[in-house]
Amino acid sequence: MNHHYNDNLSSNSFNDELEREFEKMIQAESASGPMNSDVAGGVGSGSPTRASYATRTDVTSAPSTTLDDFGELPRRFLALMNERFPPSSESPGEPPGLSTATPEQHLDWLRNTHNKLRAELATLAQQHQYRGAEIPMSTLPSYEGGEELGGLSGGSYSVMDALDSFPQFLDAIEDSFRAMDMLQATPSQHDSTPPSMPSTSSAPSLSPPLAFRGHGAQLSILEKIASEASSKRNYLTMFMSEGLTRRVQQDEALLRSSYCELYDFSLSLPEEGPSQIFLHSALGVIALHLYEIIWERKLLDDAVMATSDAFYEFQRLGENLEKLPSLIRGFAYGQRLLAQATGEGEKLSVPVQLLELAYDILKDVEGTPGRVEDFLHYELACCLCERSFLMEVDADLNSAINHLQTICKGEIASSDKLCRLGYSHLHRFNLHGDLDDLDRASRLAVQAAGMQSKTNMPDMDLDRASGLHLSALCLEQKFYLQLDAMYLDHAIAKCRTALPMLREKNPFLIRCKCDLALLLFLRYESCGDRRDLDAAEAELLNALVLETQEWNIHVPIRVVLSFVQAHKAESLTEMDEAVQLLLNARKTFSGPAYVESKIEEFVSRAYRHRYNTNKPTDDLHSALHHARRALEKSSPTSPRRAELSLYLGQLLMLVYKQDSDISHCNEALSYFTQATKGTSGRPTVRFQAAKEWADAAEACHSLALVDALEYGLHLLPTVAWVGHRMPVQYRILSSQSSTFTSRAAAHAIQQNQLEKAVVYLEMGRNVLWTQALQFRAGSTAQKHAADMEEGEYLADYLSREMHDDGNEVTDEQLVQMMDQLPPTFLDLFRSLGGAMKAVRKQSAEARGEARPMVDRKALNLLGDQVEQEYREASLHNAARRWQALRQDLQSLGDSLDPSGSSLHGRFPQIDDLDLVLRKGPVVIINTYNHRSDAIVLFHKVKEGGVGLRHVALPMMSADDVHVWAESLREGIRLFETQRCTLAKYEETVLIPILRSLWRCMVFPIVQNLKEYQDLREKIWWCPTGPLAFLPIHAAGPYHDNEPGLLELVASSYIPTLNSLIRASKAASESFRLLAVAQPKTPGYSSLPGAKKEMAVIQEQFHAHPEKVTVLMNDEATVHKFTQNLTDKTWLHFACHAEQDEAYPFHSSFFLHDGPLKLSKLMRMDLTRVQFAMLSACLTSAGDAALPDECIHLAAGMQFSGVRSVVATMWSVLDAVGVRAAKGVYRHLLSSSKSDESVLDPDPGDAAKALQLALLDMKKAKVPLAYRVPFIHLGL
Hints:
This protein is of the alpha/beta class. Among the domains are: 227-451, Tetratricopeptide repeat domain (Serine Threonine Protein Phosphatase 5, Tetratricopeptide repeat, Alpha Horseshoe), CATH 1.25.40.10; 460-473 and 489-570; 909-1052, Nucleotidyltransferase, domain 5; 1066-1274, Rossmann fold (3-Layer(aba) Sandwich). The chain has 52 helices and 16 strands. The strands form 4 sheets. It has a 6-stranded mixed β-sheet, sandwiched between helices. Strands 5-4-3-6-7 form a 5-stranded mixed β-sheet, with helices on both faces. Strands 11-12-13 form a 3-stranded antiparallel β-sheet. The relative contact order is 0.06.
């Protein structure tokens, strides 16, 4: 995954050595008479001295700092500030005399502003005790100093540190001012025509160069330097200058002209001697630059010969050894490009040794020019990087990354350096799977791809194409990690954008086309659109006709083409031809083992595809053979190793099904085990391997089945990693099988291990809720106060970032924040912004432009992309640190986290559970395949404690439950859309399902409870899988007035045992009710019953009006609800609600000003709330994709701390909601100790109150379909 770039070869050392040689030669020529009038005429008092060159070196490097990069303040904040405090026509916010002030005055003002700004922030932090004054370093991306300032080991940074980089910013402005002075003193050279090219046979045959139009500041400076020299030395001096940047390196005409002029000048020197050798090396370096543009192999060979001969000849002479670093660099540069072209990494051994020696010596020598160190440093990094790709040397890759990070740190790095560092990180991620490398690569790719937008340099297309390609490869890896096809769409778009920027002879063009084809194929596999398969083949065929060499560190294009054609083939003949071409391409390839591993995998999968089509046994064995070779050649730490192990196991199981040879099954078990336990593998791959491991163990009756099931359960939190935002966690979990936990529980029940079955069900269900609960304050329970403080901050940070709206700040909130800031603070910011604009404007005018050349739309897009990458990397780093802190819990023995789940897979707290079971049993129902079971947890009356009992349910299977759930959902849909009458819905759908539930499940359980005298005042039902969608509480015979469950006992639902324990342990609070009603919701039908419910509440609690707060109509806003929630202990909602099927965490109550989403409720502390009545539709509907996660509004209330909830499984009639509310409150008050003086209803009586209210509705002849949806959850 590497691309090779032109490198910035200019250096002070190179310039100084050439300059000294030329001055010596010119002095000698002056003494003996002028050799050439042009040359002689350019030397004298007006000739640049060493000091003047040094000055120009400083100036010409300055434009690499783009003035348009300075605006780092949040755009929305500045926009609001300007709107709130608009500057007058005199721009009072800008420094006085801005239009006439000198650059020095600007700089002084900015430095004073910086000092005042720091003082204001320090005062503000002291006055307001700003919590963010010390922020954990782990909330930053690791590439923002995490390693140096704390990273995963803790540490924090101060809010004041944000201004510590300001002096560097001012230094950049100072450099820019110097550049502007130079520009203003520079006469226009745009119309000057370079001299004609020499016709010497030894020089390359080149057409006249283009005029330097539109190159902006840097070439203007070069032209000034050139204009001060003789015309004969114009291009020579330009090449020597420090301004030889990436832009110049990619200018073919300029390089050709420079080569010819330098060659002509070399003819005027003695044929032998150090000067000629040195010029010979310089010619070779220019030719190497030119080779990286036109990619002609002969030019490379000649350039390598020139740089090599010059280096060895110079060593032989043994004179002027201070010039040796430049020659070493030229020699290494040539060897690196030659190794890249031939694939011979051993060619880089000598260059690397020489560069390391030279760099180690020079970096400690006082007075060594910085650029000498820089160019040696960068070339060393490039050579190490190249050797790591060619020879798979991990140490080289790590060293290259360290060198490149040092080079890029503290400066605005050129895009080629950003790309090279990014590709190195991506390659290391592919080898070892460290997500931090992918984060870094993604960030660097965005920066490099946006470089053109920042600098308006249309001739930087090669580097921008590299940035886009790198970004596409990073997006591909994110697709594998997050299973979102959107990443493939973006990756394909980026590759297609990059292609037109590349020359036809550039080998990178083939690489880009090949990767585009693979992305298209991947999207075809993911989405099934054959147009992607056709497009992939077209790109590969187009690349095949290009007369371009291929680098051997990538899969050859013929391999990819044959692989795609094998899948596209419509006949066996076409498939056979494609497979044969693939084998031929494989035989001719020689390269790194990790590339050979990929090729072997392509061959194996082609055979597997042909086997799937035609079922020949030989193809299966061939696929197996090449899969083994692919695994052998893969890196031991590569994430691909888990994928290949999984793939190998799958092939072996196919062979086992054919020949029934148990050895194949046992071998498959070993590969599945390796894939599951391989820590570098992607979590989804490891979890899939655990499932296949369980299948294989079951097939051969292996005892490893238990290990497979337990490993899989422990992997679930890793699959839904807290480092992903909740939408990603939800999508990944939805893509996995929802039966794995039920399977583990069924196996434990079959082995009569009921306690283990309960533990499995607690571990494998409600994973998302459990992880969300871990972010509650105090949830880390660390031993040290510092860790506790950091853990609490991380918990808050991760909780806010969970739903991708953690940084949502409304304009109103921004205005409030601004109101709290001192006026001088705002003035300083506004003045600073004005000064920046003035600097940009002055710089643009100095370049002869009407206005600053800035593409604001592109800049804004770039800013958004950088922010997105930054936030994602911050989340990853915070999650890693959070997990490291939580490891301390392992030393606390049997301690539980605040979610109630044991970190060690142990049974829930016995004592707390026993207290709850005194009121009634808990019944857990599990279905898997053809078996169904109930586990009854009950209070042991005689001996005390918790008992477990198994109730077999042989008349019910998992398929039966699935059919009932789907039939009920379809029946409700038809009934609610008025395509089915009430009578027909009840007779053909609802009642048959309730009878089946009674006969197959509820009746056997009730009989068991009666037999053991455990049928008390209530039952807590804990259904799994699709059972969560079925109204178990309403099951009954529905025949001749025989009693059903509703008549026998009160029913409550719980998602997990731990949720019930949390509710039982919550502290009791005095009654204070907050009622929210929205009779008329904008965009929805009116609910007149909502107003009636408020009247019912006021009537029921008329003796204590001060205990009831009602928000209705325009007062029922999200903001006012949040404000009034602080001291309330009871809640009532009478409004519209909706279960969001696309993303259930966005299920909402609809209030006057918008939705109150479940994702927002999750972040609220509702632990003081005793009871909530959700008189709205679909508040406990659940999610069909993840039924075991219980993602609905009622569960959100319960997990956020509400002890007792009444909710609805589907839509309810407005009038029935009024009746239910009235009945529930009436029975709650009648069963409590409340009187005229004391109001003390018990939320623990809510289930019984709902039961009685439903029985009242039954007596009142309310249709069954209208009363069944009401359920109780919790205590």
